[in-house]
User: Fold this.
Amino acid sequence: PKNFLRHFLHVHYFWTVLSSSVTKFLIVTAYLTRFIYNCRHLKSERRIGTLLVEEIDQALQFWIGVTQMESFPQEVAALKLKQHVSSKSKLVSVSPFLDEHGIVHASGRI
Assistant:
């Protein structure tokens, strides 16, 4: 029981720190995206105030897309052209598809 509790606390601490870092990373990304948006638009169209949930969600989708593109460039390119992924791909068994935001999802079981 002592080892279990120690392990549980260690894992909980790890995930707390990791999720906190990821959250901060997404917030920074969302603010940078907002800054770029505000630089490109008229003063009357600028976004101000607290970040919207949608802005943080867009930041998450951005980084998921970047990560997928770096990890599976041929698969993402094929799916964007509405083609099937190569039979040699690691993703072929999960029947990947793109959602409306260009994010790869698995339609099969993992």
